Amino acid sequence: MFNNMTPKQAMFGGAITALIMGGFIVLSRFGVRDVFNEADLTLFRYLSGLILLPLFLRLDLKTLGGIGWQRAIVLTICAGWPFNLFIMNGFNYAPAAHGAVFGPGTMPMFTAILSWIVLDDRPGVYRLSGLIAITAGLLMMGWGGFLESPPGAWIGDLYFLGGAALWAGFTVAVRRWGIDPAEAVAVVGVLSLVSFIPVYSTFYENVFLTAGLADLSLQIFYHGFLVGIVGVLFFAGGIQVLGPTKIALFISLVPVFGTLMGIPILNELPGRLETLGIIIVVLGMLAAMGVRPGMIFNGR
């Protein structure tokens, strides 16, 4: 299914991924980080490896279905627990506004740069202007958080940038190596779970002994299933259909969806600057995907 999607299905999948990740932002704003730390949330996300284990075991363990162990390790570093810890650690130093801009906001730019270097996919002027517009729009959305930045926020920004660069590496690698999306997700999920459990048990307190059942169930379902399986599968499937640069653009919609979902759930209305930023992000994404005004008015 994920290896034979049509362009429309791939775009729908990219939007679903952004919606799921936007929901994570809303979920986090309920005070999740008062209960769980970055390692807990990372563990929850890669518990998806338990569900993906049957698919993993169907692969030839010597070659991992042709992926190869060296490539599997690269994919796990780029999209596994090292990536997730980078992003989650950023929130220990910088506010959510920084995470929106330096995390999802820079992923399309990093992906475009890597695609140019690795795949010789040089962005044209129109697409480049769209990427710049996305960044400008996200800066407008997070302006309030930038004005109130705490000391040391730059450390969090570096974590976010590092995470964005790692995810871009995963995106380009899947396309460059022609890896089956489901197999890539299974390999990353299982290898992350197996390698992170010793790290977690050695350096962090066991959250299952302290957190409530309701909190644990919600977080495991959202991170482990929706984010770790559904969202990543749709995203990885879209890499082969749309290409790494275009599918990565959907990640720029994460803060947009998070803001819009916050209206009915959190009763938080975006201000004028945030609203304008949302409009610019959407227009910038369309431009970066090659959609020109004439295509819209002519119905193409």
Could you walk me through the main structural features you see in this protein, from its secondary elements to its overall organization?
- The protein is mainly α and 300 residues long.
- The protein is built from 16 helices and no strands.
**Mind summarizing the main beta sheet?**
none
Average pLDDT reading: 84
Report the strand count. Answer: 0
| Domain module tally | 1
Number of helices: 16
- Using only C-alpha atoms, the radius of gyration works out to 19 Å
Distance between the termini: 26 Å
Helical proportion? over 70%
| Percent strand | under 5%
Shape call: globular
Which class best fits the helix and strand makeup?
mainly alpha
Order of helices and strands: HHHHHHHHHHHHHHHH
Poorly predicted regions: 294-300
What's the short story on this structure?
The protein has 300 residues and is mainly α. The protein has 16 helices and no strands.
Q: What is the topological layout?
A:
Layout: H1 7-28, H2 38-46, H3 48-57, H4 69-79, H5 81-90, H6 96-102, H7 107-119, H8 125-141, H9 143-147, H10 153-177, H11 181-203, H12 213-242, H13 244-249, H14 254-266, H15 272-288, H16 293-297
Helix pairs in contact: 1-12, 1-14, 2-5, 2-11, 2-12, 3-11, 4-5, 4-10, 4-11, 5-10, 7-10, 8-15, 11-12
